[in-house]
Amino acid sequence: MHLKYPTVAPADFPQPSRPLDEAIRARFHSAASSSPWGWGHTLPLGDFTMPGFLGTDYLTMVGAIDANGWWPNDLTGLSIADVGCFSGGVTAILASRGATVTAIDEIPEHIEQCKLVLEALDLSEVRTVEASGYRVPEAVGEGTLDGIFLGGVLYHYSDMLTGLMTLRRALKPGAWLVLETNADEDEKRSYANFGRFYAGMWWQPSVAAVRDLLEFAGFDDIETQVFRRNRLIARAVRSDREPPFTRGLPYDLGDVHDDETRTLDAGVMEPATSLLTRIGMTIRAIASRLQRSRS
Ligand SMILES: C[S@@+](CC[C@H](N)C(=O)[O-])C[C@H]1O[C@@H](n2cnc3c(N)ncnc32)[C@H](O)[C@@H]1O
After folding, report:
1. What pLDDT score does 295 carry?
2. Which atom of ligand 1 is nearest to the CA of 82?
3. How far apart, in whole angstroms, are the C-alpha atoms of residue 241 and residue 187?
């Protein structure tokens, strides 16, 4: 646990051009009651506030990303996907700053909520897509995006590595991924606690694991910041480096022989691994070499 988290000014939320009438307010409440998880973001819409179980944490999250300068203030001309958009709190902010936004979510009721928010704010140019996060390249086109925002979604992926590799394919070379996730605040050891789908959560990665996953998935210039208790923001840039290994991944295997030789040295897991594990792995490596030299 950090002793001090950054003090962050929450981002402004775009406002409707006129007060929302009773009819649209009723549609907000009906969209909330027909959704399996209820309403998402708490949205301050002029004299009407739509309460949601995610609260206003998203405003602090965007404020923290802004404070780090991880995306430009003016997003005009940039093509950005908000993957896992839910009720569109962040989608609306990105669109109001000039980005051409594609809002993606796998739950149809969440896409309906997002559409309603966009309608209330006259942000009709945003494209909404009901799709899995594993299908983003198909939804937007390979190598087409200037940026991806992945807020509160990484731990919903049963396979975080495949999720990141797939998102990378949708980015232009050198384009950025900004993500926000739960995280165990361990900057040294790389691991992920298994969440058993509690609140839809498969994993709680350590900070080091998020960095490692991003690097392995083909991202460079990785920056991370724990901005509040057990919550991490990260930024990374799509590199030209393709992920070296594909065996064991639910990914097309062109060739089962990986591009790089995999190591048997458990030391690559330092300091996550124990001395006993290292000794065991070393004995196994020596034994298998001896066996190969005899045969
Ligand atoms: C915790 S909410 C995050 C909302 C918003 N991105 C934010 O940061 O405030 C997670 C959203 O991601 C969506 N989601 C989770 N896993 C997904 C996946 N594999 N593909 C697409 N959407 C997913 C959920 O349906 C939900 O709307």
Report:
1. 74
2. 6
3. 24
pLDDT, tens only, 143-168: 999 999 999 999 999 999 999 999 99
Q: What's the chain's length in residues?
A: 295
d(CA 166, CA 250): 11
Which fold, 22-238? Rossmann fold (3.40.50)
CA of 134 to the centre of ligand 1 (A): 12
Please give the radius of gyration of the chain, using alpha carbons only, rounded to the nearest integer.
21
Q: What's the CA-to-centroid distance between 75 and ligand 1, angstroms?
A: 22
Report whether 80 contacts 104 (CB < 8 A): no
- Tell me if 233 sits within 8 A of 68, measured CB to CB: yes
Ligand 1 binding pocket (C-beta < 6 A) is 41, 54, 58, 84-86, 89-90, 105-107, 110, 132-133, 151-153, 156-157, 180
Q: Is the pTM higher than 0.85?
A: yes
User: 141 and 116 in contact (C-beta within 8 Å)?
Assistant: no
